[in-house]
Coxsackievirus and adenovirus receptor isoform X2
Amino acid sequence: MEWLLLARLLWSLLFLCADLTEGVTITSTEQTMVTKALGEKVTLLCQYTLAAGDEGLLDIEWVVLEPKKEQPVIMYSQNTVYDKYHMAGRVQFVNQNPADGDASIDILNLQPADSGTYQCKVKKAPDMQTHRVQLSVYEKPQKTKCYVEGSQEIGTDVTLKCKSQGGTPLISYHWGKMGKEGLPDRSSLNSDTGDLLIKNASRASSGTYKCVASNRVGADECSLVLNVTPPVNRAGTIAGAVIGTLLGLCLLAFIIFCCCKKQREKKYEKEVHHDIREDVPPPKSRGSTARSYIGSNRSSLGSMSPSNMDGYAKTQYNKVPSEDFERTSPQNPNFQPPKYGHASRMGDITVV
């Protein structure tokens, strides 16, 4: 019995020594991957215990592991917190005193650039332990729009479209029909593109449809109303289009005719105005002036008395232009001007 008791005592001492030499231990190792939405808050866990034999200074360090270096996030050393790094103002320790065994941190207002591998390092000489957490920051789907592509007529294939304007891939789309009927039997869904194809649509296909776009951090939705109608009378539509086109051409031809007619009228008015100016008589020539001059003198002879007839004949004919006079005078060089005798009455001329 004494040997049995001694063996148990030795085993207890061995386990006690193992506990004393274990040193720093991080206990929150279950958190290895975290996915959060843009703008949210995340808590990265790093809880630990210290061995009784560790008497050195306690240092806590959070870093982001990058391909070529470690980028500091927040630190604790010698009872002081250092947080003036690239996340300044958005990161803090959960416990105001990280030395109490909780080195977990909160990151506020997450951004896509915050995605990465974070490492918590707890060191107290002579021991040190690390723990890594993978953080992924996603953007929720947003501004999702629903619309119909193709004709909404009976017997045609109709495609319902659903697309989000924002959101981190991969985004999955799901369509549903409001009410108890569910999606039509002849419909097929592509969850990657958001297309719902309804083949050979009928009146039963009409109704309100809702689309939900979702990814790992959130969802967004939209809806539309599908109204399947009988085919349109295409012959009447074509006839109406032809008639409308002909009327339009007739109206255009009438406008062109009116414009041309107006142009011709303006051109005619200009030509008439020009012809009137050409009809104005030209200035009298020198010969016509001489003839009119002689005629006026002959008409004035009847009012003259016989006493001054001789002097008038001599002086007045000398004023007639020589050119005209030579053309009207006789060719006989022996021609003598006639002599005038006395008249019995005023105004009568008697040739002697």
